[in-house]
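Hey, I was hoping to borrow your eyes for a little while. No rush at all, and the record is pasted right below.
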Amino acid sequence: MIPVRQTRRPEGLSKQERLSGKADIGRLLKDGRFGHEGVLKFCWLLRTDADSGNRIMVSVSKRFFKRAVKRNLLKRRLREAYRRSKGMLDVPGFCDLMFVYNSKEIADYQEIKQAVENILNYISEKAAQKEVVAQ
């Protein structure tokens, strides 16, 4: 008897969860709200359009890390921290979100995950306050 291979669903971020396109990124940077938490800067913007889901963008500056290997490591850690914590983001409609790594030191995964969770909680609280004011 031939064993049946079970295929796992990929755990990465889907195409719809990634923020891309010059117009969308420009709108985020122009109209979005900025903040910082630990080793991260972030920018977020609430959307009410019919697009599917929240979208993120991750950036690590070449100014701090010349080697692509280190930049890619930090980007992977950021995306994974968001992927595991994205359920904490509770906003009316959808949210575009950009994370910018802002430190010369390479932070471990736990530190990055804690910063991402704090950011998602902050955005959820601000969105809830905005919703109460809008009603």
